[in-house]
Amino acid sequence: AVNIRGRNFLKLLDFTPDEIRYLLRLSAQFKELKLSGTPHRYLEGKNIVLLFEKTSTRTRCSFEVAGMDLGMGVTYLDPGSSQMGKKESIEDTARVLGRMYDGIEYRGFSQELVEEMGAKAGVPVWNGLTDLFHPTQMLADILTVQENFEDGIKGKKFVFFGDARNNVANSLMVVCSKLGLNFVACGPKDRMPEEWLVDTCKELAAESGGSVTLTEDAAAAATGAHVLYTDIWVSMGEPDEVWASRIAELEAYRVTQELVDKADPEAIFMHCLPSFHDTNTTIGAEIAKKFGVTEMEVEDRVFEGPRSRVFDEAENRMHTIKAVMYATLS
Ligand code: CP
Ligand code: NVA
Questions:
Q1: Predicted interface score ipTM higher than 0.90
Q2: Vertex 143, ends 140 and 149: CA angle to 5°?
Q3: Please, are residues 62 and 314 in contact by the beta-carbon 8 Å criterion?
Q4: What average pLDDT does the segment 205-224 reach?
């Protein structure tokens, strides 16, 4: 039987396929409890702290609601509001928080810092996103794929378009290669995942029956795809100045209706959000106007279209994060 009690949740590379499948089953169960209105205050009396060095909507709210649904007390520390990084090291912060709380969520910059927090806290630490990985996002994403393909996720063609070097693309490559999907990173050569990670994932895929492919050809990548996925073209922590070059590099990898039409008829569109899909109503408008584009990483008609599952995906963040906390704390 799978048991991950007391473990950190820092990256999916640390978890076996069976452990990931267990978390997905637990997530589906928690979703049922939530949707049927069945109380599940299984962690009453425990307390968690959410430490964010970058902004967040989904991850923060998922941890808060999931924590409260499980009966826990929740403290939120927003970017810049603790001593950490100013007067106090990660190491000391970890040891202090670990004395007070039963679990720590941490959204930081480098993966090394989150690993350090995990090594020193003495209680489970959950990675709420680093520059390298976003592991809680992946559970929500795979749950969403499962919900849409009753014949299972194995062998499905999962294509990430755009900045294939970012945290979300990296993590998708890991989870797909662990669970036997055919992962395709589609973008310019310079924005592909780092070689060491590609090599690691190719080995994992060889064990699970999946595959990892890197391509610059968007039309070929979209052909027969079951999942078309993209993310914002400039990630948190990157300077605004990169927008100009990023738009020029990635425009050929926008998820268009034309690409969706090449995909499997049952294909779904996914995006971890936040997104600059509607350049009329969001801050994306300013950036788009400045650089003379009318669409960003995905066409609005795809984002709003019948194949889009982006809000199911967002909701699933909460159910899956609940599963991670329950499995590591109960
Ligand atoms: N997808 C995601 O992590 O969103 P937030 O940055 O809003 O948490
Ligand atoms: N790649 C994005 C994901 C946000 C959830 C970022 O890091 O900003």
A1: yes
A2: 145
A3: no
A4: 98
Report how far residue 69's alpha carbon sits from residue 55's, in angstroms, rounded to the nearest whole number. Answer: 23
Pocket lining: 238 vs ligand 2, CB cutoff 6 Å: no
Fold agreement (12-133+317-329, 150-265+268-306): yes
Instruction: Please indicate whether residue 231, judged by its CB atom, sits closer than 6 Å to ligand 2.
Output: yes
Task: Report if pTM > 0.90.
Answer: yes
- Fold classification of 150-265+268-306 (topology level): Rossmann fold (3.40.50)
The answer to whether 246 is a known catalytic residue is no
Q: Where are the domains of the chain?
A: 12-133+317-329, 150-265+268-306
Q: Tell me: cis bond preceding 274? Omega within 30 of 0 counts.
A: yes
Q: Identify which has the larger pLDDT, 188 or 282.
A: 188
Cα→Cα distances 226→19, 243, 301, Å:
24, 29, 18
What is the CATH class of 12-133+317-329?
Answer: alpha beta
Annotated active-site residue 134? The verdict is yes
